[in-house]
Amino acid sequence: MASVEVVLPSDPMKSILEPTSTLQSSISNQMVQFDPARHLAFAPPAKIHMMRDIGYPEDIGVSPVAVSEPFSLFSQEAIKLMRAEVLSDAVKEHCTYSSDIAACQLRGFAPKFARFVYDAWKSPKTLAIISKIAGVDLVPEIDFEIAHVNLSVKTERQKEEELAVFKEKELWAADEGIAGCPFEDDKPIVDWHHDSYPFVCVLMLSDCTSMIGGETALKTGSGDILKVRGPQMGCAVVLQGRYIEHQALRALGATERITMVTSFRPRCPMQKDDTVLTTVRPISNLSELYYQFSEYRLEIMEERIRAQLNDLRARRRGLKQVDTKALKQFFAQQEAFMAHTNKELVEEENVVKGEIGKGAVFAHNSDGTVDMRSVKRARSE
Q1: Contact present, 239 and 123 (Cβ < 8 Å)
Q2: DSSP letter, residue 226
């Protein structure tokens, strides 16, 4: 996969840190606690696209839901508080990463440097909203993924130059009778990829009033491209990104585009979990990532084994024969689950920092359609 070229100022966070400095000072003096009644501003999405609608089998993932249209989630006050936390000097110093599919990312900052952000995504009321839209009861994947922030920053001059070119090409296209955005073939802010985790909620932290573009492009099962309108500040999109190849398209008309991506997995330990670490391993504190990943996977195993043990004992009390086939199937499933877990724990010396590349995508057929065999392999690993 080609690298993404993003031209950033010498200090990519300086221009966006300055407007929040006053708010950061007030937060340091008096911590603001997340209050659902005050900080949630939920309005349902106009539409939810199902997996079958975009050419995928309904049982390919953990839910029949593919992606939502943008919906209002957090109040403007909540967004300002989130911005103040994630754009702080501490986050900049300790939690900045870059990769070959995105130039500037912030990760692993909550709850240590961002208590408000952490509590907002851990709130039962927030989780109820996300789960209802996703069609499955979800919880945050791990604390390290609360949350991941993508940053695209331009100077005022770069913004004006892009808009000038856009207007010139738009006039040319109108004269020639050619429809479509003249920047559709330009490099995106985040390149084509599959997420490591089942679901994500992408929240917009920037003012998009004057923004042109910035949609999320999805590759359908037939190889076509579906564009989902980008959310406005405080609005979000829910996407089953583990199974849908997607990218964040380039946005014009703004000096910044800051999105907060929080990842989710099914709450029920009996439900399948296809989590991988492909796209996050090269941009993480591996010790912390591996600890949290292993902890929740072992907790899932613990719950599954306890349930199976209770069933086995219940059959004995009921004077029933041991169901050998069912037991062997259970053990085989857990062997596969643990083998998959072990495979994701790549030794530190074998992880190339910042290099994600083609490991983030499923294979495609010659006609551009998704090779379902590669999806099945990923599900079985």
Answers
A1: no
A2: E
> What are residue 105's DSSP bridge partners?
97, 150
Q: Which amino acid is at 93?
A: E
Give the HSE-up count for residue 377: Cα atoms under 13 Å, Cβ half-sphere.
8
Cα(61)–Cα(69) distance, integer angstroms: 19
DSSP label of 46: S
How many angstroms separate the CA atoms of 18 and 109, rounded? Answer: 20
Residue 290: both structure tokens together: 């591996």
Residues sharing a CB contact under 8 Å with residue 75, sequence separation 6 or more, in sequence order: 38, 39, 40, 41, 234
Q: Which residues pair with 217 in a beta bridge?
A: 227, 247
106: left (phi over 0), alpha (psi -120 to 50) or beta: beta
Q: Do 97 and 283 meet the contact criterion of CB atoms below 8 Å apart?
A: yes
pLDDT in tens, 243-302: 999 887 777 766 788 899 999 999 999 999 999 999 899 999 999 999 999 999 999 999
pLDDT for residue 70 is more than 60: yes
